[in-house]
Amino acid sequence: MELAGTVFRLCSILGCLLVVSPAAGGASKIDPELASRTRLAIDRALEFLAAAQQQDGGWELFGRTDPAVTALVAKCFAQSPKCGPDHAIVRRAMAFVLTHQQADGGIYVKDAGLANYYTSVALMALSSADEERYSSAVERARAFLIKLQWDEGEDHDSHSAWYGGAGYGEHKRPDLSNTQMMLEALKQSGLPASHPTYRKALTFIARCQMSSHANDQDFARGVDDGGFIYTPVAGGESKAGTVIVNGRPRLRSYGSMTYAGFKSLLYAEVDRDDPRVRQAWEWIRGHYTLDHNPNMPDARSQEGLYYYYHVFARALDAWGEDRIVDGRGREHNWRADLCRKLLSTACSDGSWVNQADRWYEGNPYLVTAYAVLALQTTVR
């Protein structure tokens, strides 16, 4: 662990000019001083992560090295201009991740029930590294994810609420979080938007949108707020619970899933003027904030916050516009806003952690990876 930290510190010293160079990581779309501070924060976070790499190349979750956390962290280093995919830290991490590639092509821990989640984040990491070196592993993992999608092969046709979605594993009901991760991984691995997997996924995604125009499920009847929920299965579920509208309860859309749905529509190359995209965009404008996971109940609004920051960055980067005019007419540079927010919440050792520990966000390696990946998206 000490060796990895020392190696990264040497890389930081030798590459210090990259911190202040306007060309570092590509032309910045934010103020140069803020971009410089952001890159320094990324470097400190990577030094923290380098020192925590275990002998087997992984990073820990619940006291043992975990391939999903390791894949997310490895991607941070692979995308860093000071490290890159050939760095020793990345090679060791990828080797550890690939020890979990199974005979079916998936990359996961057996009996953990998280095959889609593990394989998706592993495929993202492998796709960010050397294409030739990992091409066989990428192809096998991609084929596994495509097969894992719920469709006619599992006796779910287009009338089923399960159709087109992905869950945590082979027998788990689908949800939007796993579906958007699958699509992100497939896109990063080079699967074209014309592939049938995206078309099938769009059916599931539409059923997660609280829009009677797009969603044919009973729970969305008469609802048009345009935000997204967690899953349409079994009458629908939202991790934000319900709200009362016109005297009756309805599922409550919320930030992390709305950005996930919005991003997925864009990855599937749905037209920007499509009503599904426009409604989602209006929801984002009306609920714009980085102080909490928007539209979650107050007591739970800090839960999943760094997952939210990550999907926020990926979705708005896919949208391609740096400025947002919110529902009150105020203009925001979302890249600058996100940088300032994450700089303000970093720990003294360069890491991030969420005190509202849900969905594993009490783990500093996972949360620091979310933060670094989000920041890398803002300043690349």
Main beta-sheet strand count, sense and barrel state:
2 strands, antiparallel
**Topology as H/E string?**
HHHEEHHHHHHEEEEHHHEEHH
- The overall average pLDDT, rounded, is 92
Q: What is the number of helices?
A: 14
Radius of gyration of CA atoms, rounded to a whole number: 20 Å
**Structural class from helices and strands?**
mainly alpha
Distance between the termini: 28 Å
E-strand count: 8
- Shape label: globular
Low-confidence runs of at least 5 consecutive residues: 10-27
Taken as a percent bin, the fraction of beta residues is 5-15%
Percentage of residues assigned to helices:
40-55%
Widest beta sheet: strand line-up: 1-2
Write structural notes for this entry.
The protein has 380 residues and is mainly alpha-helical. It is built from 14 helices and 8 strands. It has helices spanning 2-14, 17-20, 32-51, 67-78, 88-98, 115-128, 135-148, 176-188, 196-206, 255-267, 275-286, 305-319, 334-345, 364-379; strands spanning 59-61, 64-66, 209-211, 224-228, 242-245, 248-251, 323-325, 331-333. The strands form 4 sheets. Strands 1-2 form a two-stranded antiparallel sheet. A hairpin with a 5-residue loop joins β7 and β8 (331-333). The model is unreliable at 10-27 (pLDDT under 50).
Give descriptors for this structure.
8 strands, two-stranded antiparallel sheet, mainly alpha, 14 helices, single chain
How are the elements arranged and paired?
Elements: H1 2-14, H2 17-20, H3 32-51, E1 59-61, E2 64-66, H4 67-78, H5 88-98, H6 115-128, H7 135-148, H8 176-188, H9 196-206, E3 209-211, E4 224-228, E5 242-245, E6 248-251, H10 255-267, H11 275-286, H12 305-319, E7 323-325, E8 331-333, H13 334-345, H14 364-379
Antiparallel strand pairs: 1-2, 3-4, 5-6, 7-8
